[in-house]
Every structure is written in structure tokens, then in C-alpha cells.
Amino acid sequence: MNWDDLRHFLAAARAGQILGAARRMGVSQSTLNRRISALEADLGTRLFERSTSGSALTEAGSRLLKNAERMEAEALRIRAGLAGPDTPLTGTVRIGAPDGFGVAFLAGRIGTFAARHPQLTVQIVPAARNFSLSRREADVAVTVGRPSKGRLRAKKLTDYTLGLYASADYLDRMSTPRTRDDLRNHTLIGYVDDLIFAPQLDFAVDLPVKWQSRIEVSGATGQYEVARAGAGIGILHRFMAEDDPALVQVLPEIVLTRSYWAVWHESHHASRRVRAVVDFLDEAVRDARSCF
Predict the structure, then answer these.
(1) Nearest of 135, 137, 130, 203 to residue 164 by alpha carbon
(2) In the predicted model, what is the mean pLDDT of residues 28-44?
(3) Which of 39, 51, 91, 289 could cross-link to 5 by cystine, CB 3.0-4.6 Å?
(4) Distances from the Cα of 115 to the Cα of 110, 119, 124, angstroms
(5) pLDDT of 80 above 80
(6) H helices within the chain, ranges in order?
(7) How far apart are CA 114 and CA 147, in angstroms?
(8) Contact between residue 274 and residue 110 where contact means Cβ atoms under 8 Å apart
(9) SS3 of residue 188 by DSSP
């Protein structure tokens, strides 16, 4: 069994489609197809059911995936054991994060990490969604709350707080709410309910008031911009809103607390790239603890 064929199989299994896997590996679609066909011929069984919508694993493919991931983890462990502490990090590492953290916090600091590892390509994917670490949509994901399922490892980064904010212009036009009941007379900004990707983001559950959004945006950065533009009152991250002179906190007694975690697949526990990212994230939030 050829290990290179297995690597191509892993990429296709995680991507769910040949074209996407080929792009991620930097090879042609025909090369990836040839590698998988060679592996299927070697094993004497079909590993994928191919269709126009993608490639689904067969029962044999699902069994092979588990074994291949163990082999990959062992290969990573061997490589990490042979590499000295001064061996430069190379390749690509992808960090998935909620859009608020990824754009407003991490993007402005990732240059420090890149400068420390000049031979490493760093990708940030800031998106209001969950990332599948088993399918390698990210090597490290920053999550809101600790995941409870999957073969994952996690490290808590920090707690963070949210409050109610509006622009000074909006409050001049509509008046500043003095009591929680006053919010009924204001335009409220929140998430699109059916696009909330983590239960911890359903802020209305923990608010001491009834929150009926009239403007709904699926991401934290979008909500921030809507509030900043004077459209209403939003539940915004303190690290995004507190130092913005265009925004004013209202009803400051209303505070919500959530937590960020760094999460990675257990098969990457020996990866020096993953370890370096997790250590950097921990360092970055620790240095900026007061802003959260």
C-alpha cells in the first residue's frame, strides 16, 4: 500500500469531492483520481461512490479512513520527534474562527506569528460557521464554547463579554434607553435565528429582557457595522465596541459572558504547526486580556 496514495485518499475523504481535495493538495484533478484508482486497485475494493454532487465514502472507504488517520497521526508523531526545536516550520496551517474574533482580533496580530515562521503559509478563515476538523476544513478552530463531540482536543483561550451598544447618532435621534422596558421602543439588531451556528450565540436566551430583533445579520462583524452606522442597538463584543468612539454602551448592567476555545483534531496532537498556532493564540489573548 502506497502512503502517497493514502494521503490523496485522506484529502478526498475529508473534502467530500475530488476537485476541492485536488485544489487543497495543489495537484490536478486527474492526478488525484489516478492516485485513488491505484489505491482501490491495490486494495481490491471501491472506496468512493462518485456523483455529480461529490464523492461519498463506501463502507470500505469509511473503515479505511479510520485506519489512515491513525497512520497519519503516527507519521506526524515520528516527524515531530525527529525535528529539532530549531527546525523551521514549513507548509500551510489554516485557522478557522468566528468572524468577530478572526477579523477584529486575530487579523491584526497574525503578522507577528507569520514573522516568527517565515517558511510557513498561514491561512485565516473568519466565518460565522462551524468548522469540521475531521474533514480538515481547518487545522485549528477557535470556537465559542468547548465542543462536546468528536475526537478533538481543546484549550480554553479566554472568557469574553458582550453588551448593548448603539451609535451616538442613533441615540440622539431615538433617545437613550434608561430602563430595560425602553428597549421596546428601539430597533434591535441580532442574529438570523436559523443561521445561529452555536447554541452559545443565542444571546436572547440569557438576556434579562425580551429581545425582538428587527435587523438580523448572520455575523458579529456585520452586526457591529449595522450598529455603528446608526441603525439600532446591538449585542456587541466588548473587544470590538469598547474603544470605538462612534459607539456608546447602553444599559451597562446588561452583560453576557462567553468563552473562546482553541480546538484541533486529536490526530494532530503531534503537529508542530498546530502546537505553534495554539501557543500563539494563547499568548495573543493573554497579552490582550483586558480588552475582553
Answers:
(1) 203
(2) 90
(3) 39
(4) 9, 9, 15
(5) no
(6) 3-15, 18-25, 29-43, 59-82, 99, 110-116, 168-174, 220-228, 238-241, 272-287
(7) 28
(8) no
(9) strand
Number of other residues whose CB lies within 10 A of the CB of residue 190: 23
CATH of region 3-82, choose from 1.10.600.10, 1.10.10.10, 3.40.630.30, 1.10.3720.10: 1.10.10.10
Cell 457595522 belongs to residue:
225
pTM above 0.90, yes or no: no
Cα 94–Cα 98–Cα 99 angle in degrees, nearest 5 = 100
pLDDT in tens, 101-154: 999 999 999 999 999 999 999 999 999 888 888 778 899 999 999 988 888 999
SS3 209: coil
Q: What is the DSSP string of 50-106?
A: EETTEEEE-HHHHHHHHHHHHHHHHHHHHHHHHS-TTSPP-EEEEEEE-HIIIIIII
- What is the CATH class of 160-257? alpha beta
> What tens digit of pLDDT does each residue of 174-190 get?
999 999 999 999 999 99
Residue type at position 76: L
